[in-house]
Amino acid sequence: TSFADVLQAVQPRLLPGFSFGWLELVSHRCFMPRILSKKGKGWMLFQRLLMGLFKYMEPYLRVAELNETIKLLYKGTLRVLLVLLHDFPEFLCENHFSFCDVIPPSCIQLRNLILSAFPRNMVLPDPFTPQLKVDLLPEISKAPVISATLTASMTPNLRIELDNFLKGRGNRTFLDNLPSQLLLASPSEAAASGTRYNVPLINSMVLYVAVHAIMQNAGSDKGPVSSGASMEIFLKLSRDLDTEGRYLFLNAIANQLRFPNSHTHYLSCVLLFLFQSTQDKEIVREQITRVLIERLIVNKPHPWGLLITFIELIKNPLYDFWRHEFVRSSKEIEQLFQSVARFCLPTQMSGGQGMQPPGNSGGSEGNGNREGVPTQGQ
Fold it and tell me: In sequence order, which residues have a C-beta less than 8 Å from that of residue 343 and are 6 or more positions away?
């Protein structure tokens, strides 16, 4: 505990010149395994150390213009996360929510490493299995353990209004005003964050609303996604937010597409429902596709929930994915989709309009050095 407190006092944000020495000490075999063996206080202390590292790197990673020093620090951070993914995956599982709050959207591979973690006592079903019945998996009904407080980013008044609306006691004014409540309060905050939106608040609201819907649907014969207050909120935000806000909102949903659990299943269904129900707003479908595809074209690992969501999107005729113009907006974009489809569906896929049948070659690794994909019209 004392050593962790010392490391917290000399973290990179406070002593940048000691960053490499600090990272080496934090990840040392005599410190990291020992502190993480003490679930509870040890995990809390190590989570605080990693949060400090991510917050220090965030301004550099956000603009994606890294000097050699930050590149080396970033590579070192990736290696530490790989060790955690292999030896302490439960730590990443429980703390993914707070980590995603401080990792910028451009750091896709870094986020994928965290979201790919799953408990060591779980055997992941192969997402490429034909006719995989996700809703019949026993893990789908279980909620994952999350150490963060979901309402920490909400003001007391916002939480009261949100709870009232979810319980059917609210009014339409709350829903109409909701997009504007996700904005940061001042221009100075927006300048410091690199966005006009309160990202932690968006992340909190998405998961909070999802948890409420899951609890409400528990024990009923309704499908995972049914009409109600929760879906009204998701539909409102998908339609009324501007391009920037909608991208952050969809990212917040994608951050929960992890190992098999109730959150993954519900929000995967929400994302597919939003794709299907926004027939009059093609930009929503395009942005949903962008959020999924940019997480698949980086190097492995890829979160299980992300894979099953994208596979369902491109193979289920209900979504008619290959018909959309943005899939064929340019030859390069079309080739990119074909490449990812080959990776996600190794066997021949039917129903692709204007598309060659996918072969057996993987498509994501060839673009492994890319941290994002340009989307037409963005």
Answer: 296, 361, 362, 363, 364
Q: Which residues pair with 183 in a beta bridge?
A: 197
Please give the structure tokens belonging to residue 67: 């000097």
Residue 10 has pLDDT above 80, yes or no: yes
Q: What is the pLDDT of residue 252?
A: 97
Nearest C-alpha neighbor of 238 from the set 264, 265, 276, 201: 276
How far is residue 47 from each of residues 32, 107, 310, measured CA to CA in Å?
Answer: 11, 19, 31
Peptide bond into 301 cis (omega under 30): yes
Sort residue 265 into left (φ over 0), alpha (ψ -120 to 50) or beta.
alpha
User: For 347-356, how does the pLDDT look when each residue is reduced to its tens digit (9 = 90+)?
Assistant: 544 444 434 3
Q: Which of 239, 277, 272 has the alpha carbon at shortest distance from 253?
A: 272
* Of 112 and 172, more confident: 112
Residues 107, 57: Cα–Cα separation, whole Å: 11
369 backbone dihedrals φ, ψ, rounded to 5°: -90, 5
Calculate the alpha carbon distances from 204 to 198, 211, 249, 256, 336 in Å: 10, 11, 10, 11, 32
| Res. 173: pLDDT tops 70 | yes
State how far the Cα of 69 lies from the Cα of 214, in Å rounded to an integer: 45
Q: Which two tokens stand for residue 366?
A: 């060839």
Which residues does residue 197 pair with via DSSP β-bridges, in sequence order? 183
Closest among 10, 11, 4, 91 to 51, alpha carbons compared: 11
Q: Label residue 362 exposed, middle or buried (CB < 10 Å: 0-12, 13-18, 19+).
A: middle
* The predicted structure's pLDDT at residue 284: 92
Rounded distance, CA 186 to CA 138, Å?
46
pLDDT at 204 over 70: yes
- CA–CA separation, 46 and 263 (whole Å): 25
Contact (CB, 8 A) for 206 and 256: yes
Q: What is the DSSP code string of 123-163?
A: ----TT-TT--GGG-GGGGSPPP--S-TTTTS-HHHHHHHH
Among residues 335, 337, 331, 339, which one has the least CA distance to residue 361?
A: 339
C-alpha closest to that of 54 among 6, 19, 9? 19
Q: Which element (helix H / strand E) includes 190?
A: helix 187-193
